[in-house]
Amino acid sequence: MRTLEEVRATLEIAKLKEEDLQKTIHCLSFGDNVSSADYCLMELDDTLCKHIEAGQSLVIRGDKDERAVLCSGDNTYDLKIADTSNLLLFVPGCRTPDQLTNSQDSSHVAHTQIWGFCNSYWELRKHRPKLKKLKKILMENPYEGPAIRGQEENTENRYTMEDLLERIQASEEEIKTHLETIHACQIDGYWRVLDFDYEMKLLGHVTQLVDSESWSFNKVPLQNSLEELAPLEPKEMIEHCLNCYGKRYNENDKVFYALHEDKVCRGVALMLLQNAVKFNLREFQEVWQQSVPEGMSTRLDQLKSVALVDRTSRPETICLLRVEDLPEDTLERFNHLFTLREKWTEDDITPYIQDLCGEKQTTGALLTKYARSSMQNGIKVFNSRRPVAT
Amino acid sequence: MEKRGSVDGSSPPEWLLVELQGEVITRHNSGLAGNVMGDLLYTKEGVPVLIVGHHILYGKQVKLEKPFAVLTKHSSHSQDSLGSHDNSVITQVPMETNQQGPTSTSYSVSALIKRKLIFKTRPKPIITNVPKKV
């Protein structure tokens, strides 16, 4: 271990005057741990730092094919190695000038160990969670309604929240929100997504009841609905349908639902569009308006991100195109969209790329990066940056 | 000596980072452990100075824009041993593996780093005419 005399000798050779320096001199040496490979450095943002300071734990998820992600309570981050050309040393006992007391009269040596070093670290980038897989695995066994007498219910491929947390690269909060978006519900402790036809059947029961009872669709009584529809479907399913398509509220100690016009109209449209590849737009709009509950108005903008209108064909047509059926990877998504249609207006393409935006990213920025723009008949259109077979 | 962050002891200690350009070259092949690296001093104005071998480096103290966590890896343990740690634990969960039995890697946060001393100026060689006898 270096002595004060040795240090003073070094100072003299280096032509540094002791009186110009602060009293504490740290002699740095490498500790025993430095050569082991069992440590690494990870960059944090403010949220994670506070998380760690509060003693909360984090999880890193990933398998061989997927890159690793870090999940905290409600956020997901991509992990990426960043190399630096510099050497980073971690020194536990080293003090900075503001921490030195300088109370001693003379210089003294503080023997300080370097605990570890590296020249790369894990970089974090807050990422949109990979949730497409969630619907995919729940669709392995969609719920089609209560088992018909004599038929056995399919009990394979059912997932609890714990199962989902293990398989999906997202935080619990993100998973819960997405489950609500895809109208999933818990049956016997397992999260189930409804078979589309069954979901539409439930919605049909509710809307027909509203019409036949002449209720306002803003004031659908829960109790009456459950009583009237109990012979047809389980009460939990009726209530689940009302939760998905309406907003619950209390009035005079009674529970009511205000059906959400946009959600109901969109559901009905999906039901109609499923049956063919393309529809004549005008015919579709007529049938659609007739099929929704009395008092509700259909509008094409209710179908953003679920249907695509073609105004260049004669007659004009509409077809089913759901953003959730499209590739999750950004580049693959753009390639797919440009394969479907060579040129897109910003209005048409935006609903299909909105979910690709990362933190603080806009659809405009994505379009600049992944597409090329040109003018067509006075309107700005976007096409692929590379030749695409249509 | 470790610093305790908060009263309940759940916050990891804060360490200092020293950043250098280039590699540290040792004369010995036996590895770095136990070897002296250099002397770190501060001028009265608070400028950090590092003497490494025959080089003198001047640096500055910087607050990190993004703090670092020093993670120490642990081979897979049973769940009860985790309770004794007072630092945050990061568990690596393998997904859908065909391996038998749970094999998760866990990391504990050994320290947080919020400030660094960075030595970027080109090291000035220390020129000696006469080696000083110590």
TrEMBL record, chain A:
InterPro entries per UniProt: Dcc1
Coiled coil: none
BP terms from Gene Ontology: DNA replication; maintenance of mitotic sister chromatid cohesion
Keyword annotations from UniProtKB, A to Z: DNA replication
Cellular component, GO annotation: chromatin; chromosome, centromeric region; Ctf18 RFC-like complex
Highest taxon above the source species: Eukaryota
Stated family: Belongs to the DCC1 family.
UniProt cross-references to PANTHER family, sorted A to Z: SISTER CHROMATID COHESION PROTEIN DCC1, SISTER CHROMATID COHESION PROTEIN DCC1-RELATED
Protein name: Sister chromatid cohesion protein DCC1
Gene source species: Dicentrarchus labrax (European seabass)
From TrEMBL, chain B:
Entries under InterPro entries matching the protein: Ctf8
Highest taxon above the source species: Eukaryota
Coiled coil: none
Keywords, comma-separated and alphabetical: Cell cycle, DNA replication, DNA-binding, Nucleus
One Gene Ontology term from the biological process aspect of the record: DNA replication
Keyword match Transcription regulation: no
Keyword Calcium found: no
Any Pfam family hit: Ctf8
Compartment annotation: Nucleus
GO cellular component: Ctf18 RFC-like complex
Record GO terms (molecular function): DNA binding
Family under the similarity heading: Belongs to the CTF8 family.
Record's protein name: Chromosome transmission fidelity factor 8
This protein's encoding gene: chtf8
